[in-house]
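Collaborator request, handled under Task 6.
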Amino acid sequence: MRIGIGLNLLAPDNGGVTNYALTLLRHWPEFAPEHPMVLFSFAHNEPLLATLPPASRQHEIRLQTQEEALLHFDKIDVYFCPFGTLWPRPVRKPSVLTFHDMQERFYPEFFTAKELEERFFHYDWSLRMADAVVAVSAFTRDMSVQIAGAARGKFHVVPHAPDALPPPVKPAGWTQADDGRPFVFYPANFWKHKNHLRLLKAFGEARAGGADLTLVCTGSLLGREAEWREAIRASGVGDHVRHLGQVPRAEISWLFHHARALVFPSLFEGFGIPLVEAMQTGCSIACGHNTSQPDVARTSALYFDASNPASIAAAIIRIGADESLRVRLVAAGHERAKDFTARQLVEGHVAAFATACRRHNPLRVWFNERVRLPRSQRPRTALTPREVRVAARLLHTRTRIPRGYEHVSP
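Structure tokens returned to the collaborator:
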């Protein structure tokens, strides 16, 4: 198979999704050389693509628009979109997309009406029109099937396999005053679901409760610097919070290697790549018992209720002070990290591409073009009552902590 991969959404601000796509491309020639990737790339991709080895870019076609990919379909056997949407669509080739999450069905308040309309249009109809779907977790597969009505038989659950972090380099923004101060670490862009505001409130409570720690954050503030400064002021922990902005992966590596713990209070994760990066680097984990996080971390994390600042604070206090707990979590993390390998990542995608080739047929093409495409043009901007019920049920079932998993109360 020759796989054409659309890279229009490959961008630094795309968080873990960009990490995933680069890891897949980096290791593809090693584990699937018989199935070459044809990169449909764009000028804005170049800084990221430049980090790949030459073998990953042997077959590359530079485009001006996504639709131009159609002009080169004679050069591929499968069309692959790794960023959650199939575009252009429908296509008269076996098609695959990687689906990461539909957060808007669970937290619509985090999105504008326009964003909701775009997500309903792209996510639902991409899932339905694609011949196969790579889901990054069982949770992502379940939401796609139960909420969007996608056929379960087209899904392959393929967990992320983050590249090993490079040798650690002390962050350029690190000061002499920072040396020797124990800290917890949170790498995340300032998206609402990443729950920074509750984390800051919880960190203030943890400091008041005796946690002698600094909180170090990285990632983009997304133009919301004023909101961040106000949250710091309101939490009363300004002298104990460091935001280093977007930093190179070598500096991320240093922070993981030196942090007392990764504190990961996200309200919603389709997967959660930093959890695996923490396992790889021997950093203990405290995270929310929600969505995909217990599936990923299993027994290698201390779990808390990410919607409750008091619970987050209790976890920060405990993981900061309990060395024996940290040792147990790190040991469990080393074992769990063995389940996320580049070979499994590539082989899972090869299987999905083969499924797409088997499922693709003239009847599916006709149904996509004549039935699904016209239906997809009907705009909507609100969740249906059924979606609200299903999303609430999925969230509830994911809050149950399995027996034997470390957790805090409240």
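The cover message to the collaborator said: "The radius of gyration is 22 Å. Residues 342-359 form the longest helix (18 residues). Please let us know whether this matches your experimental observations."
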